[in-house]
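Researcher: Batch entry, complex prediction.
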Amino acid sequence: MAQGFHIVVCGSLVPDPLQTLEPIQSPTGPALKNEMMLPAVLDPWAAHALYEAANLAKKTGGDSKVWLVSLGPKAKLQQLMMTMAQKAAFELVAIDGSSSGFTDSAEVAQTLAGAIEKIPGLDKSRLLVFGGCSSASRDAGATIQLIGEHLGITDQFLAVDEFTVQNDGSFKILERVEAGQYQVSVCSALPIAIGWATGNLPEPPNNPQIGMVNMRTIMPALQKAQAAKVGAEGVTFASVKLPQQQRQTKIVKDVPVDEIARDIVEWIKS
Amino acid sequence: METILYIAHTESNGSLSKASMETLTAASDLAKKLAGATFVAGLIGENVQSAVNAVSNCGASKFYAVEGADFGSSRYASDVAALEILIRTANATIVLASSTSRFCRAMPGVAYRLKGLIDTHVSGFETGSGKLEIQRWYYRQRMVASMSRTQRPWLLLVDSGIYPAFQAQTGSATLQKIDMKLDESKKKTKVVGLQAPQTTAQTIRPDAALLFVAGAGWTKKQADGQIHIKDAERIILDFLNSSNASLGSSKSLVDQGSEGEEVLPFLSHLNQVGQTGSTPRHPKGLAACCHGEEPHTVGWRFINERRAVNLDPNCGWAQGKADVLYVADAFQVMTKVTELLTKK
Ligand SMILES: Cc1cc2nc3c(=O)[nH]c(=O)nc-3n(C[C@H](O)[C@H](O)[C@H](O)COP(=O)(O)OP(=O)(O)OC[C@H]3O[C@@H](n4cnc5c(N)ncnc54)[C@H](O)[C@@H]3O)c2cc1C
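Model: Structure tokens for the complex:
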């Protein structure tokens, strides 16, 4: 294919899932304790979207290209890029602003869509907008659809595990639906917006060569990152609390298997 | 004064799903609690009359509908168009719908077109102050917030498993049908059908009383230095058959498939519970050969009673994540459990 895809992946940083998180009140609303200090990762479902995008671009060839559009505090984005740059080939579009889960998806989408509109040479007739089906911060599952609307994309799919280009040029999409099933759809033309679930690809190994190529564009992108104000206008948070999570675990040890099994069966049936 | 619109879509057999019936309970409760609120309902689907008749006792003063073959399947372009016109016609200020895959996909776009705002995964409502406050979780079930908004329309997708299903009494209701023609540009996508994942057993049962989570330990070397995949497969499937539990998995176990290791053939990413998996709602959960690390256990937020079987007395479950941890060999324990369950 001489004419490749233009794939824009939207994704930003979230606290490493292994971290303990604690909410605090800040002058601008709820926030996380030590938010700027917390180790961060690329939002996991957005990371799957990025791997799928890179794989699709590579498979398709031609002039296919992947952009990663990321809204987050510039210094933290820079740290994140140190690891992400080696995972997949992409051009970074950075926007300097909050990556808090307490921002509103509508404001985030408006900012991201604005940045996408400004990508030089982006061709909407071969555009795929990718992102995670939900973030590990706000977990709204709404941002990709809102970006799609801003860009006039009316074919959208959520919680996708598979996207295939068919022989007739149409696209087959598998979306997760209820009861562990997939809805299979066929879309005849681009542009398409996709919120990815885990997809089918493992995390790619680090590739220092890709990292070096990426870094050439990442640093300038970070330098020219525009500041954006994103929050949650009109929202009043009455409270943000940690749930009563800790249980008093009873540890049953050195007890015969038969006894444990009986106890479990009794509990299942109760 | 608020106008509360409850929206549902019909299933392929023309009925309303359990999740939709639960949200109907939430909507009719809310309408009673918010002073002066008007309560109306709207449905989309191929043919919605029988579904509307089934809930005609819900207290809605009007039933709007967009129906026809074009609205029978779950497709973004047609759904957004239908939902937009439904909400506009009803002049709704607050919209409640359930978090079905269909509405999760479409509702954000509807909010955009109406210049409204949306909140998803709503898990509770408060009206004590005379205005609506919702509850929802942040950071993948790590913290819970109560919040309100001033903007309208406010679209809310309510999670399932929170409200009891509405007790329907079949009657008859007059439908206010909204005529809608779908132009070809909204039919670029065709829904072909449903497909089960490429695995050999249907193991995900959302309505099951018990969630059984299998962890990577099932595929690890055991005390004899060997891997026992075939035994693991048989033990897990036998237990699922005898208990009717729904099968969940840790990420490590389902990832083995894409990393080319020997795997349990009936597991896919759809079984994964946790940070990047699902957050199912079942009254009870039992984990075996799973370590109980935080990225996994955040998916257990809505499992009330939790037990685990693990060889390691210091595993995550022991750190306040389960009610009971049995320190034992899961191969032996689960074999015995199934034996007891199947014994008449
Ligand atoms: C970004 C990110 C996202 C993640 N998302 C998720 C997610 O959504 N879901 C998820 O599950 N994880 C997730 N993880 C991974 C998570 O941190 C853990 O690595 C994973 O849950 C471990 O899986 P496990 O407990 O099955 O495997 P292991 O950690 O390998 O544990 C195996 C357990 O089996 C026990 N065992 C072995 N043999 C037996 C036996 N015979 N009887 C009893 N016990 C036995 C062992 O004692 C051990 O505790 C995520 C991680 C990251 C970084």
